[in-house]
Amino acid sequence: MASTLTQKDLDEILTFTIALARKAGELILEGSKAILASHDVSEKKNAVDLVTEYDVRVEELVRGEIEKAYPSFAFIGEESYAAGKRPELTDAPTFCVDPIDGTTNFVHGFPHACISLGLLYKREPTIGVVFNPFLNQLYSAMKGHGAYVNELTRLPANPPAPFPSLQTALIGMEWGSDRSASTMGKKTRTFTRIAGDPAHDIPEGKMAHGFRSLGSAALNYCAVAAGQLDMYWEIGCWPWDVAAGIVIAREAGGEVFGDKESSVQGKVFTDDMLWGRKYIVIRGVADSPQEKSSEAQKRIVKEFYSCVEEWEQS
Ligand code: LIP
Prior knowledge:
With about 325 residues, the chain is of the alpha+beta class.
């Protein structure tokens, strides 16, 4: 296949990727039964950065199918990266894959784990497919062509609500794998500012409606795309956690931003932020006579980042 993709090529790639996600889902379900019986779990960076043989087997399955169908495409995968592969990101079509996103959930039998298959084209997140086989929920999107759940329901499923402030927000937040005193202090102070009650001794508190910690970055993006979460922020994810979700969220009217400095300047996500490991995604917001959706999203991100103490992820 030529390195320049036509719309027909992209349509075929999306169909292939959806079928591949479902095939990988079968192995994930098989692996869940096996791991819940064997409890055979390994550690990567530390005791909360988990991996199983099925993370590796699913990635091998997916990589093999991609190499057969699209031998000229590049491949970035979580477990290949962990094994030392450091592919350079180029303009070439590149699959960016997390074979099991939400491995901790997978290990515990908590049914919020998925495969995340993103296609980067000219470094842009262009196709995204996220499949949770435990709940049979498949999210898919192509840049400029909308986002869907189970291929039929366009996202967001309901008209986007206004987003007056953080006070009305249900926010995806994760504890991640960096549990050092320094990082935990910044996380908990950030969480306290966002959830705290300004009328009860937390003067900068935003008293947000709440946090949800699903344990899967990709599924958090899908929840934002579906309008179930208002936003999701995390420091420490990798490109394979977010590549597919960025397409799905954006095609559902959402917007993605990067670190505090760029977000406060109103800069939306660009491909140079892909390896930045600091990401925040905001759901679509209804345009109003006073404020367009994009303006509301930038306003919310600035309000959010006014509460954040950032750290550099190891
Ligand atoms: C997970 C991410 C999640 C993060 C976890 C973990 P994995 O990816 O999706 O957002 O909080 O620490 O990194 O490791 O399950 O593929």
